[in-house]
Amino acid sequence: MSAKRPAARRPTMKDIARRAGVSESAVSFALNDRPGVSEVTRDRVRRVAEQLGWRPSTAARALSGEGAATVGFVLARPAHTLGVDSFFLQLVSGIQEVLARRHLGLLFQVAEDVEEECGVYRRWWAEHRVDGVLVVDPRTDDPRPDLLDGLGLPAVVIGGAPDERHPGLSTVWADDAGAMTALVDGLFARGHRRIAHIAGLPGLAHTERRIRALRAEAERRGLTEVQSVTTDYSDAEGAAVTRRVLEAPAPPTALVYDNDVMAVAGVAAAAGLGFSVPSDVSVVAWEDSALCRMVKPWLSALSRDSVEFGRTAATELTALLDGGPARTVRVPVPRLIERDSTGPARRA
Amino acid sequence: MSAKRPAARRPTMKDIARRAGVSESAVSFALNDRPGVSEVTRDRVRRVAEQLGWRPSTAARALSGEGAATVGFVLARPAHTLGVDSFFLQLVSGIQEVLARRHLGLLFQVAEDVEEECGVYRRWWAEHRVDGVLVVDPRTDDPRPDLLDGLGLPAVVIGGAPDERHPGLSTVWADDAGAMTALVDGLFARGHRRIAHIAGLPGLAHTERRIRALRAEAERRGLTEVQSVTTDYSDAEGAAVTRRVLEAPAPPTALVYDNDVMAVAGVAAAAGLGFSVPSDVSVVAWEDSALCRMVKPWLSALSRDSVEFGRTAATELTALLDGGPARTVRVPVPRLIERDSTGPARRA
DNA sequence: TGCGTGAGCTAAAGCGCTTGAGTGAAAAGA
DNA sequence: TCTTTTCACTCAAGCGCTTTAGCTCACGCA
């Protein structure tokens, strides 16, 4: 309890070796389940290690070629954009669950943009800091896969589309296109013909996928009054765009929002214009969270298990670190949770 | 772009030494701004290093006693509790800003509870993984300061009260008591006599501080119908507690919520019971976010700059790592942003 | 001329761990 | 009985960096 560090010395393998009366190498063999020591010795060494509270120094491990036992995660969003968001904490929490079990650390960094993010990867690689990384928010024209491939840094892209151009990277993705198609299908069945999609950031892979899927579905059904508008995911833009589309001569009867925050803001904006939900206009949020049950009416939402998404991604990365092949795995299509914000289209 | 890692070799000091025609030690001196080399050589070495894209291996650095260049951050909350939350991402984002500038990494982990969190600290210490940690959610009876003090791990406690018992730890705190006093002051002035405080998790230091401050202020003014009820911060409990207190024979005329999520849920719950805000009951959220402007009426809220809070904490930690003394710094008292959810008390 | 001095550099050890190349003794085979 | 194999273990090098001690040479000074 002194002001200056008492700094208890960490036990090293040398300490164990001395106490167990064997050489350091024997200790290494014993502790790493490698052949070369008898079961008796192995047990003794293990006991001594336990007793001393020994843990391998990651630094030393890393230096002797074992990797840093750490995984990197960069969030490239300007600080002020990180508003109310449940997705990332949940995702990270799922990632953790898997990593912690293997005593892998998670190095976390927020960056301003993708360019800075690339710099972080380079630095991490050069500093020998991470064994692999998890990449989020993939873009349609994304420099990161090329970079990571070039550095030979194992990586899992979260939320990207299958990418044949980078066979070294794993991908974990949700079928946004399928979800969008099913969603439009449902809306169509209930009479909706004019649909507005308040999308997220342009350039994000999943934003583009949803937009394309919506357009394709509209064409297939011959719907002409279907549109997508991109935003920055903020409540402000969500509200603004909502007002804009609803003030048109023939306003949409259904609004699909790319996140919960905009959906909530949109409902308020609609109410402000005298539209009531769902009788005048139906609302669906892409992303379910407590938010959706905090407003009246409760919002119908596409729900996915973000924690599980994180677990899956982390599992793929560990597989990659173990020398496994890169894979592309699809997580379940988000399910539509019907609450009170969706109903039949109002008769024209 | 091959399937198996091309694994470009990282340049080491040896490479630089060879290219610059000097010894490794000279390179070390040159690159660390230590005396022992001429300016000419220093420049040459620097140029070669730059050209090779060299970065020191953190592993090697750590091993030769320089520390891991990494800071730890544990969030001890069960995964499902990590709902809609703006505070932590903002906090972390502020922390990052300061750390990144010094090329310090942030090792992030979520744990189930404080006990597991202590285990993480022990492991990090033994594995030589971090040079210091940031501790959040301090409790009234907290084992962490003792542990960290014992390990000699530099630490900054975020949101704790000044702690004379652990002179080795820095503390960054907000004056919750002062804020609460001012808040009650304002409510009192507008005629509120019956106040309910829907608090956060019991046992958290700031929860207790707020509760105590409220009680003290109530006693000072002779208010008898003032109460605090603890919750788990969730919208569900926020709503439930709101219903309970409003159904009392003499319901409160003002509700103070310890976070924005509960406040929003509380407004909805109040509406469900026929109470309108603010004419029947005033509502204040402790923590401002986009959420507060997503509901009608817009919520009055105590606002603080969480990003700046993070910056301050990280700055204190780096000071500690540089060998500076432990300090206790207070961040500005949260400001009340008056919106539409507060008004004069209804006449009895 | 000799000697101390300091600037500029090199050699080498050490941090904690892994690992391939030994070593010595017991067990197995001829 | 002697060789070969196997087993259990030790030695020593090496990972990339820091750091201490030491070495060399030019310079200043008596």
From TrEMBL, chains A, B:
InterPro entries: HTH_LacI, LacI/GalR-like_sensor, Lambda_DNA-bd_dom_sf, Peripla_BP_I. One of its GO terms (molecular function) is transcription cis-regulatory region binding. It comes from the Bacteria. PROSITE patterns: HTH_LACI_1, HTH_LACI_2. Residues 11-65 form the HTH lacI-type domain. Coiled coil: none annotated. This is LacI family DNA-binding transcriptional regulator. Keywords: DNA-binding, Transcription, Transcription regulation.
